[in-house]
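Appendix B. Chain record.
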Amino acid sequence: MKRLLLVLILSLVITPQLFAQTQIGKAVFARGITTAETGGGDVRVLGAEAAIFEGDMLTTGEKSFVVIEFDDGTRMSLRPNTIFHLEKFKQAENQAEVRLHSGGLRASTGSISKLNPEGFKLHARNTTTIVRDADFDVRLCQEECEQEAENYQVQQKPSAFVVGRVAEIKGTLTITSNTQYSRLAVKGAPLYQGDTLLSGKDAYAVLAFRDKGRITIQAETTFKIDTLQFEQTSGGQDKALFDLIQGGLRALTGLIGEENKEAYQVNTPVATIGIRGTGFDLVCVGNCVAPGSKEISDTAILAMGDGLFASVWEGAISIKTDVGEVVLTKGSVVIVPDKGSKPKALPETPPFIDDNPAPRPDKVLINHENLFSSYPIKTYRFGLFFAVYKGHLTTTETDKKYLDLGIEEASRYDVDKDGNLLRLDRIPPLLRNDPYFKSIDESFWENYDFLDENFDDYFECTIL
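Structure tokens predicted for this chain:
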């Protein structure tokens, strides 16, 4: 009865100032008491279908939670004891900024973060996180998380989903997954098995892989990461298989090629490239380009004729066609006209290889540890945690240190030390299995009547 009276009182506290605010979404599911405070200090209670406005400060009570949905399709589930500020939401400008003061949330972002890779920002303590078309959790822990974490079993460290990252980029790079989901790449963007990369005109990207291999893809190139497995086990399962569909690349092999030369290869429409511990360039034009691909427009390259051009600047490579295999050593330059021909030596390196504006990958400074290193969870106390299930997050500290997260990656920022941003070696079960976060899924709402009657028992059983 007391709770109902409180809801009625707070629901009546609505002033004309409220109507001057911009509605940006609504609450789609609520349990317990969640309040929204306007900039003028007016407070109202959020129930299902209640409007939310730009500038609202949302507060969930003890054992209370709310699911909100923004006009761009972003959905968030706020757990109990969360204070969350909707600082800015401009859908027409593809700009949004929110701030987490306490508690935590699970989010699935909408059109703003998809259309503008820099447009959706989440602030928490001394960090700013750019959210790029992501499903993710964030939890700001004080001392309570340490006790909560005791209720969850420590999960086994999973195999890495992220096989590489975009270390440097100029111009436009589009990445399409094996499920045909496309995204615009930025520096730090995660790469996965099955991804196909397409660079724009006058563009290039330097890719860094877990085994310390590197590949630069030049302008107007289509390149696929067919397979990259790197677990550093004794079973010999590590391998790297790539497809150059059109355009050009510059490659420096990593540990996979060093430990097992047969485990690394680049396929093209006219030949298969094997390695011998290597740095090399490939350019694929004319007859070399896979059917259905858009031809490159560089006239200097086209003037050299059709085929696959190969140049070795470190070690050696093998080129295998339908008529045999040839080994090329450092300094060799050849053209393979088609898959029925042997490589033909060229008297000199073509200018489009010598003067390639896309940098050789060994000449690019890359902090491999920052891109891939991870650490075990030592404590939950006084930590800001992120976990990613889809998309890409970039968290930056006030001193400009930053960390990128992709699918199945997590991070911790030490709140009490005001620093020490680290990638974790697994997603904390405290986030992945949080029963309140599961309320973001509509299927969860189907049990509303059950939850309404057995709310406390349900969540205690779920946690334990």
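Further analysis of this model is presented in Appendix C.
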